[in-house]
Amino acid sequence: MISSHRPSRLVLASASPRRSAMLGDLGLRFEIHPAHIDESLLPDEAPEAHAERLARAKAVTIAKEHPDALVLGVDTIVLIDGRVLGKPKDVPDAEAMLATIAGRTHTVCTAYAITAVDAGIEHVRLVKSRVTLRELSPERIAKYVATGEPMDKAGSYAIQGLGAAFVRAVEGSYTCVVGLPLCEFCEDVESLLGEDWLASITDAGGLRP
Question: Does pTM top 0.70 for this prediction?
Answer without folding.
Answer: yes
